[in-house]
Design the sequence.
């Protein structure tokens, strides 16, 4: 596992720290302004270590704007030679640049190109190409590797990176949906054991069979539903929400270092929320202009306008001691173009463990599961306010809404007064 984890960008120092139990030491990371960002020491408890690769992949795709400039130093190759001999593949230069930017060493880069060369051969045999693939053919290639017992790092991860670099959003987004569910349910089970004990975890997980790594997203909703229903039956809805509402992806606080810095500089929650929203809109605008994916989302100018007109999206609106947040649709471009209400709900849902269960009759996964999304939303505020906040799900796709909306309680004035604003 550790060898495959090393294929992920910017993780060498973290992996060494996990092996030794010592705090992580990084290579002078810098933010977009060129300022050195000093992440906190990181030690991950043993039950979480085996799922850490998922957090690394999440950081790569979901937080690359926040971590622009992070580097593994010597891991970045200095040569510009063609990695795989023969005719240049479609978007080879873009893929190579992307892998270098992510900090992969030369062996990992070569392995990535070999994986894509294999995919190209498979597509060619079907009368297709990397330039004009069919999603079904790419998925068939991936499932063939999975059936042979291949590691997802040898085929799925290189392919997701490739199609992202090649600006084929449809294929890239679908392949990422295979990757993001990995480890979520086992990590939730670990948290349950930490809070309620091993006996409770065993009772809840009895009959819950987690899909194998690399399984199609459609394999997860039924399992997720069984987990949520068993959790609720065992500990009740309130304790279940506590178990689910947390930073399950293991995102480090350093991902929000710039946001915390801006809050301390501005000294006003309202001004900071407005500034945060403005900065996110500008990031979206850049992705709309250059055609690159924003995390796993295709961004158009229509999406930019949609978000800019709604300060709750990628921002927040304060009313009293509460901040209201509406989540951007998972696939915002297709969401805005869709006319069918059911299709819009499916396109709005970010959770690959649940979205496939959404039907006209409701969702197969209980809405209680959306407490997990609340945990994701609130973590930004936990970091910025230096205190764990309380988040409530006001509306969600799983409960029948077209978008997901949350309320985050602001810490007390006494606590905020202690911050160095």
Sequence:
């Amino acid at each position: 596992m550790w060898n495959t984890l090393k294929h992920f960008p910017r993780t060498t120092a973290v992996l060494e720290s996990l092996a030794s139990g010592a705090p992580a030491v990084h290579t002078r990371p810098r933010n977009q302004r060129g300022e050195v960002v000093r992440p906190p020491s990181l030690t991950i408890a043993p039950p979480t270590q085996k799922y850490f690769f998922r957090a690394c992949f999440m950081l790569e795709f979901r937080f690359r704007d926040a971590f622009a400039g992070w580097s593994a130093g010597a891991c970045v190759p200095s040569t510009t030679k063609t990695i795989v001999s023969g005719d240049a593949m479609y978007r080879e230069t873009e893929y190579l640049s992307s892998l270098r930017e992510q900090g992969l060493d030369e062996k990992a880069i070569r392995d990535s190109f070999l994986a894509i060369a294999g995919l190209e051969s498979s597509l060619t045999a079907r009368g297709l190409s990397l330039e004009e693939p069919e999603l079904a053919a790419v998925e068939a290639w991936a499932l063939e590797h999975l059936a042979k017992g291949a590691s997802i790092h040898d085929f799925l991860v290189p392919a997701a990176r490739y199609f992202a670099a090649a600006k084929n959003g449809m294929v890239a987004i679908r392949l990422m949906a295979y990757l993001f569910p990995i480890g979520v349910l086992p990590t939730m089970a670990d948290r349950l054991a930490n809070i309620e004990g091993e006996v409770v975890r065993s009772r809840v997980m009895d009959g819950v069979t987690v899909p194998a790594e690399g399984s199609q997203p459609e394999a997860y909703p039924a399992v997720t539903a069984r987990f949520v229903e068993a959790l609720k039956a065992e500990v009740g809805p309130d304790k279940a929400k506590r178990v689910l509402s947390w930073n399950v992806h293991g995102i480090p606080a350093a991902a929000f270092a710039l946001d915390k810095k801006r809050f301390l500089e501005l000294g006003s929650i309202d001004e900071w929320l407005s500034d945060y929203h403005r900065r996110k809109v500008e990031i979206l605008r850049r992705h709309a202009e250059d055609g690159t994916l924003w995390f796993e989302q295709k961004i158009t100018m229509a999406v930019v306008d949609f978000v800019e007109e709604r300060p709750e999206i990628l921002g927040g609106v304060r009313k009293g001691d509460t901040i209201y947040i509406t989540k951007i649709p998972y696939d915002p471009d297709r969401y805005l173009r869709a006319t069918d209400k059911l299709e819009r709900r499916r396109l709005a849902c970010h959770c690959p463990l649940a979205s496939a269960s959404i039907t006209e009759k409701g969702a197969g996964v209980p809405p209680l599961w959306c407490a997990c999304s609340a945990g994701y939303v609130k973590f930004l505020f936990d970091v910025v306010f230096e205190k764990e906040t309380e988040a409530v799900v006001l509306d969600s796709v799983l409960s029948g809404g077209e978008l997901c909306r949350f309320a985050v309680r602001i810490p007390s004035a006494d606590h905020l007064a202690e911050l160095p604003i």
DSSP finds 20 helices and six strands in the chain.
